[in-house]
Amino acid sequence: MKNIKGYVNFVLHAHLPYIHHPESEDYLEEEWLFEAISETYIPLLLNFQKLEEEHVDFRITMTLTPPLLNMLDNELLQERYIKYLEKHIELCEKEVKRTIYDERLNKLSKYYLERYTNDLHVFKDIYECNIITGFKHFQDIGVLEIITCGATHGYFPILYVNEKTVRAQIGVAVKCYEKYFGKKPRGIWLPECGYVPEADKYLREFGIDYAIVESHGILYADPTPIYGTFAPIVSPENLIVFGRDMESSRQVWSSINGYPGDFNYREFYRDIGYDVDYDYIKPYIAHNGVRVNTGIKYYRITGKDCDKDYYDIQWAKDSAERQAGHFMDCRVKQIDNLASYMDVPPIITCPYDAELYGHWWYEGPYWLYILFKKIYYDDCNFKLITPSEYIDMYPNIQVSQPCRSSWGANGYSEVWLNPSNDYAHRHLHKAGDRMCELAYEFRNEKDPVKIRALNQAARELLLAQSSDWLFIITNGTMVEYAHKAIKERIGRFTKLYYELKNDKIDEKFLEDIEKKDDIFPEINYQIYI
Predict the structure, then answer these.
(1) Would you tell me how many other CB atoms lie within 10 Å of the CB of residue 308?
(2) How far apart are CA 155 and CA 442, in angstroms?
(3) Cβ neighbours of residue 434 closer than 8 Å, sequence gap 6 or more
(4) CA-to-CA distance for 268 and 293, rounded, in angstroms?
(5) Which of 75, 93, 87, 84 is nearest to 35 (CA)?
(6) What's the distance, CA 452 to chain centroid?
(7) Do residues 151 and 520 touch, judged by C-beta distance below 8 A?
(8) How many structural domains compose the chain?
(9) How far is CA 19 from the centre of its chain?
(10) Percentage of the chain surpassing pLDDT 70?
């Protein structure tokens, strides 16, 4: 029998902004979803499946955000993902022929052909084009806890200027979760880990028991938590919060000494989309002829400022296995030390973006698989746990008011409110106020067309509020698309607002944007009353 002194809680945040363009296949941004399915979601599911088949008892927590769930359930996007895979398989077949001159390169090209072919088989034949069912299976058997997020990842510390817009972000998210998983979520990953006390009452109203917050949200709580981030605290409004552990996060996240920087791992920034002859690769890059990543990468990180060596799958696995052992040993020492000072078993909360595992860190899902096996089989002093299991086992929790916080640069809101993107907020706040005005004015509406317009206005507002657009503008990537996403959604909302106020609804316009922005078919605008 193991001498269990504490617990480790892995939380992966799976989220993408809602991108859906039935009017055109020319939007490269749709491929963010396809890359995430192939590089993160399917690999995670396959590794969970291996653990289940090998009778390894494990625990992991994941957010599947409402925009991601709606995209994964979208038939058009499912069809386009299949086309994406078929195109990649075609390119891989050409690569097998092109690389015949080099044995190591040819082996890698065959590996990619096998991988994308298997993705197609898993997606179509096993999950029948809907991988949500895969995640639901692991939740149903008790090894995965799926939590929710804001409806469209709206950033609470700015939206709370009108608290009804925060309440709607939470209420719509919970309803979406119930639709896919048949029950209410117990936990939430606050969008961008953005915590404000004003949101607590609405989280509790919709049945949310706990939230994940950034480290200083706990460390600067009032009164100071006795156990720091190594035990949850509960706010005066009765919301339990778990804080990110800094030591374990640094081992994975750090760009200097984090695991993903190992020289044996696959180099993300070296892709055949940029390396091979233009005429050869042109059918497989952007529609406008711009070179982009294809996902086929033949090089390992190798080292800094040196010629890249070819990627070696076995070397990468060796590194992942070694680092999984290192991570486990570090948690054993950490928990051994903490347990001697605590009256309850410590819990180490390890939250990460899910896309780190597979997309950015190609070997990440395999590292998790090895780590979970080692924790199960090896002699260690901790077990994996979900937040719900922990609070059910240890319900005596210190009352303390968490600090306003986020996991953005410098810990609060400057990523989402700065001179590059501050123009958006006055429009978002104005639209939020107007949505509340419409909901109240038309609270007893019976006209089906007006009800459709009101529901669509709510969708447009929610989509405009996505924190992703503000983040993208700050980071300087795909900025034009982010500006366009905000402008179009606010424009559509404003047009609907005046049409409703003037009793002149353009049904053709309404039908067009219902097809484009078709998120949350179950939405009810009265959430804003």
Answers:
(1) 15
(2) 27
(3) 493, 494, 497
(4) 9
(5) 84
(6) 30
(7) yes
(8) 3
(9) 14
(10) 99
Distance of CA 122 to the CA centre of its chain: 21
For 79-122, write each residue's pLDDT tens digit: 999 999 999 999 999 999 999 999 999 999 999 999 999 999 99
Query: Can you tell me which residue has the tokens 């003037």?
Result: 502
Give dist(CA 91, CA 88) in Å, integer: 5
pLDDT digits (tens, 9 = 90+) for 386-441: 999 999 999 999 999 999 999 988 889 999 999 999 999 999 999 999 999 999 99
SS3 letters across 139-160:
HHCCCEEEEECCCCCECHHHHC
pTM of the full structure: 0.96
Could you give phi then psi for residue 356, rounded to 5 degrees?
Answer: -60, -35
209 and 327 share a domain? yes
Give me 175's structure tokens: 């309803």
Looking at the structure, do residues 138 and 43 belong to the same domain, yes or no? Answer: yes
Q: Residues 6 or more apart from 435 whose CB is under 8 A from it? A: 165, 168, 457, 458, 461, 493, 525, 528
Which residues lie below 8 Å from residue 396, measured CB to CB, with a gap of 6+? 344
pLDDT, position 1: 65
In angstroms, the CA 439 to CA 33 distance is 33
**Pairing mode of beta strands 240-243, 233-234:** antiparallel
- Name every residue whose Cβ is closer than 8 Å to that of residue 11 and which is 6 or more positions away in sequence: 60, 61, 62, 63, 147, 189, 212, 349, 350, 351, 352, 387
Instruction: Give phi and psi for 513, each to the nearest 5.
Output: -80, -20
From CA 256, how far away is CA 262, in angstroms rounded? 10
Instruction: Return phi, psi of residue 453, to 5°.
Output: -65, -40
Both 374 and 484 in one domain: the answer is: no
Does an H or E element contain 369, and which?
helix 364-377
Q: Is 1 a domain residue?
A: no
| Residue 140 contacts residue 125 (beta carbons within 8 Å) | no
Q: Show the tokens assigned to 268.
A: 């993300």
Query: Whole-angstrom Cα distance, residue 239 to residue 187?
Result: 10
Host domain of residue 43: 9-67+132-265+312-410
Question: Is position 236 within any domain?
Answer: yes
Q: Which CATH number do you get for residue 157?
A: 3.20.110.10
Q: What are phi and psi of 527, to 5 degrees?
A: -60, -20
Residue 198 tokens, joined: 């004003």
CB 225 within 8 A of CB 439: no
Residue 3, domain member (yes or no): no
Percentage helix, strand, coil for the chain under 3-state DSSP, each rounded to 5: 55, 10, 35
- Rg (C-alpha) for the chain, rounded Å, is 24
Find where tokens 């059918």 sit: 283
Question: Which backbone phi and psi does 139 adopt, to 5 degrees?
Answer: -70, -40
320-359 burial string, b = 16+ CB within 10 Å, else e? bbebbeebbeebbebbbebbeebebbbbbbbbbbbbbbbb
The letter for the amino acid at 170 is: I
State which H helix or E strand residue 248 sits in: helix 246-253
DSSP reduced 3-state for 237 = coil
Please answer whether residues 168 and 213 qualify as being in contact, where contact means their C-beta atoms are separated by less than 8 angstroms.
no
